Amino acid sequence: MFDNLPHEPLGAVDDDRLRLIFTCCHPALALQTRVALTLRMVGGLTVPEIARAFLVQESTMGQRITRAKAKIKAARIPYRVPSAEDLPGRVSSVLAVLYLIFNEGYLATGSGTDPVRSDLTAEAIRLTRLVRALMPDDGEVAGLLALMLLTEARRAARISASGELVTLDEQDRGTWDTALIAEGHRLVRERLASGMEPGPYQILAAINAVHTSARDIRDTDWSQVVALYDQLVTLDPSPIVALNRAIAVGELDGPEVALAAVDRLEHDLAGYHAYHATRAELLRRLGRSAESRVAYGQAIELAGNSAEAATLKRRRDQL
Amino acid sequence: MQYLLSVIHDKLDLAPSDEMAAIDVFNDRLQADGHWVFAGGLGFPNTATVIDNRDGAAVVTDGPFVESKEYLAGFWIIEAPDLDVALKLAAEGSKACNRKVEVRPFL
Asked: Do A26 and B83 touch (CB under 8 A)?
């Protein structure tokens, strides 16, 4: 409904922020540096906060930010929004940074931080809205905003009273934010109506639209989810996408098929907590308790998020 | 603002004639658009000599100051208002000479 209205012109403050985002996310800076610089300069986070979020020493993070500022000045990285001709090439770098900020907020890795950092997710959403105001017709900008909204909508259900991470199947869907879901669904429908080939963010948004359309985990249209992952794999053949696809396949074709697909990813993902957590779940469903217990142990060891580790421990101890 | 565009190469061969022709076209464009300051191709690293006269007694060493597979094959010095313009020109230059190009600002 709101998207049919003309977009509000940006105010002077927002213009400044956009310029700053494009400067901080300049491709001449390393990706991790772009993230840190954006959080510092645009998000206003302190160096200790950013250092904690990315598990590096304060002095290291301080140096990284100082060096980046020096490079911006010495090499004269411009403080402006790129021209219309250059925007499409530059915006993907901005979206990658905003998505990393959002994900760090949604599954925070700092040991002393809250497991979910709503300050980071809110900031990422706010900045993505700004980019969307600049590029209202860009499919991936709309896709990333929808993806963030449909994820953020579930935030209240994500941590239990006892501080455990609650997985999608166990969440109280009554606490999901219906306004955010409605806005996210509207964006996904808008992209579908455009008839243009979706990029990865739009496909991820569509997957989340399927999840947030189901009143119960059993109502989830898993064949639709798997079809969307099949589409995503062709654009992004990374092992992490393959892992998430395997989880959806498990809901459709059973844990045995899914486990076979997951086991093929061992070489790439042996150091990734979600690989072991997924194996542990599938092994549990197959009644292979001893192997499941081992996999839970590996996942707990690798989990950076305290609430996720707590959930994994409970599930292991229930075996 | 001036930038040094260093042409990086890893084989001891000279640019073939089609690359030389593309470099000429690019150089003409740099001059026509007011970006040109200076440019040149360099002899191979094994023609280099290092001299150290910091203590007053000049020590001469045969060869380049650093031995590495990649070496500086040539350079442009360009005038550009900011890094975005310099990077665009460097991208064109890299295409023209078919080599990697490092962009570095002058102080």
From this structure: yes
